[in-house]
Specification:
The protein has a seven-stranded mixed β-sheet. It has helices spanning 5-10, 14-26, 32-54, 62-74, 79-87, 89-100, 106-115, 118-127, 137-147, 162-169, 181-193, 228-238, 266-274, and strands at residues 152-156, 173-178, 199-202, 213-218, 239-247, 278-282, 290-293. Helices cover 50% and strands 13% of the residues.
């Protein structure tokens, strides 16, 4: 169910609300502990929204639901074994990458994402929120898209399409795009489990439809790309005039994530400016995402 439009337009986005609250701390109108308590309450609303969208019937928690979902998909009865694989998923992804990929080769990178199984475990664990809350940036994106009156959503670099499921649950026309056939197969299966309609776009074989979307997320995507500037052009063509690109365009060096091959995002910003995009919002408090609007 979508929120009442008046409620949506009046509600502050979570990072903006927290930034205002912190000003109250600096002015001695609120203690640090009170701020932390209020932040947790606000984050809990996002957690509930995330869990309500992703949990399947018959499960008591988000973690249990997602682990059982993956176990069902891969044909394993032992959910504890699936959890064990999830816990080392980040390391398995790292090992797969180092064994298979030449990061300067687009073909090598494409083959990795197309065939990887370790990423299924790594991503499902991340989306349980067991270790960090950064997937809640999708809920933040949803709130912003609702505020801006958007209805046609694309998750570019969608991974396992939890974002697409969230948006579809809230009434958006939803599409997931990726170069990974293995991740897209799991995505399509997940949408079907929930009886949700969504467009699945395999970027190895299909182009993005022109001027089809008014809101595009690229969550932690650009650091993985061999040619991020060309991707800006792809997304720009797929956006309707006035549409929004929501993404995080920053990445620190991390030896445990060799798949992060881009660390200088200035060429991306330069291309966005050249195409006439303007930055209309930035998360200055939680996760650092930026929003650009197409002219």
């Amino acid at each position: 169910m979508r929120l009442d439009q008046a409620q949506i337009s009046q509600a502050k986005l979570l990072p903006d609300a927290l930034k205002e609250l912190w000003q109250a701390v600096e002015e001695n109108r609120l203690t640090d502990d009170q701020f932390r308590d209020e932040q947790e309450k606000l984050l809990d609303e996002y957690r509930r929204t995330w869990a309500a969208a992703l949990m399947l019937r018959g499960h008591r928690s988000l973690k249990e639901s997602l682990l059982s979902e993956l176990a069902s998909y891969v044909g394993r009865d032992d959910v504890a074994e699936v959890e064990r694989r999830c816990l080392v998923g980040w390391r398995d992804v790292e090992d797969e990458w180092r064994q298979r990929v030449e990061s300067a080769s687009s073909e090598s990178v494409e083959r990795f994402y197309d065939r990887t199984e370790a990423y299924l475990y790594n991503l499902i664990w991340w989306h349980t929120l067991s270790e960090d809350n950064t997937p809640l940036a999708y809920v933040l994106a949803l709130r912003l898209a609702e505020q801006r009156g958007c209805s046609h959503y694309l998750d570019f670099g969608a991974d396992i399409s939890s974002g697409g499921i969230l948006f579809a649950r809230h009434g958006f026309d939803s599409a997931s795009a990726h170069i990974s056939s293995s991740l897209l197969r799991f995505s399509a299966w997940r949408f079907a489990q929930r009886a949700l309609n969504a467009r699945i776009i395999d970027l190895k074989h299909q182009s993005l439809p022109s001027k089809a979307f008014d809101f595009v997320t690229a969550m932690d995507v650009f650091e993985h790309l061999v040619d991020p500037v060309a991707t800006v052009d792809q997304i720009a063509e797929a956006l309707m005039p006035g549409g929004f690109l929501y993404g995080r365009f920053a990445c620190r060096e991390d030896d445990e994530r060799p798949q992060h091959i881009v660390h200088d995002f200035e060429p991306v910003f330069e291309r966005l400016r050249a195409l006439g995009f303007s930055q209309v919002w930035e998360d200055e408090w939680l996760w650092g995402h930026q929003v650009f609007q197409k002219p």
